[in-house]
Write a structure and sequence with these properties.
Growth Hormone, Chain: A, 501 residues
Amino acid sequence: MRIRFRFSLRHLFHAYLVEIILCLQTIYYCLASSIGQYIYRYYLESYSETIDFNSDFWFLSNTFNTTIKDKIDQCNDLSVPAPAHQWAQQKSSNLFFYQTVASSIPTIVMTYILGLYTHQLGRKFVLILTMFADHWWHIAAFLSSLAGGGNVSSFILNLIITDSTEESERTSKFLHTGAMCTGIGAITSLLIGFWIEYRGFLDLYWAALFIQLMTILAVYVYMRPQSLTPVLSINSHCHNHSNNRTTKYDQLIHICMVFSPRHTNRSRKRSICLIITLVAFTFHCLASLSFGVPFLWFQLNYPFCWSATDIGYYNTVSSIIWTVGSIVGLKFFTYTRFGDAAICCLSHIFFIISALWVAQASYSWQLYLGLFIAPFTSYQGSLTYSIISKWLEPNEINNAYTFVTEINTILNVFGNSFFNYLYSITVSYSRNFTLILAAVLGVIPLVLNCILYRVTIRISDESDHRITECKPILIPNHMPMIEPAGIEAVRFPAKTSKRIQ
């Protein structure tokens, strides 16, 4: 009986390794994300002890207009002076700003290095390395950034997913993960809210460390060496790993030029589509950062002044609605046969509406009502990898994903710093400035995806002789493969094109 149980457990880990990794990582990041509430509560509780000697506060108090003070008084916690919430907002966002600055340069450099040396180091090693150094703060932020961070692990898992699925199934595959991660996040967020109220934060961070160690152990034990084989095109002679004369400088050039129309023989249509997709993805990231980075402070600020339990409730309801809405959205788009560009256009329209709605919200029920729009706002993030994989040669995908991951890392590093800083200097005058800015930024990818839609319809692709045969990489006995990032939509796992025995 014990042998059968161990065999079943081992088979389960081999068959659903990526899903297990993603579930554990989702729980970990939910636990780690509570650090913002911890920092805010620390400053809020230290307000009475330090505020008399803080000149910034006196400037803040004297420049507050009457309307803002009246709105702050709506907070339920009347034991805390009205301007204390605003002061804690500024101090918390400033702390996150300096933390992000401390980790910015090494994160960018290590993302490039690990992406460049993924084949030599092995995907298992790089994946484990990024998980070892996820506990941070100031000096710790610098040290953890030397491992590359979550973007590199997403890059590795994205490669595995791309290699393990047929091209026609990648769109649904890259949207599939969202519901699974969101469902896990819903349960975790609800439990975290109650736990913080009754037990505090310390146990959560020990639990986060334990979850991360479990993930590392799962990767080390159950990811087999076959999964480290690089992506190869059977008919392509451009990506020959047996050619040791190719230098890292040449590979860097290939990474930087992978989207250039002059660098390859790809058609005009594919070159235009790739560039438009890349630029649209860039502005989508900026808009999402403008919305998401200061959103915790927005919830903690007037007129909501939410507690940890309130935030836990909201995150749970948000996750459930995201899951259900993503399923309905994808089923609808599949039934109506919408293309990727059309889906992204609709997604950005919903994003703009959502940002404007939340920016004008004054009551908690308005934030909850806005969640019914949210599931349709972020398809661009998940579909980008699917779109570019359809327009590239199989041997170009590794370089393209490295380049996109590097851009995403740079945007996240400087975007987190910039939007935290922007919120800290504008919150005294406009609590919703960054949300309105997010809506404005969302217009740019909307326009670009409209152009992409027209390009894919009107421009012929006679010169498109892309190699379609590809030798995929599969984790042995692994049928469903899931994409690591995003909270979009759900589809059932598609069959892989080949299985390695």
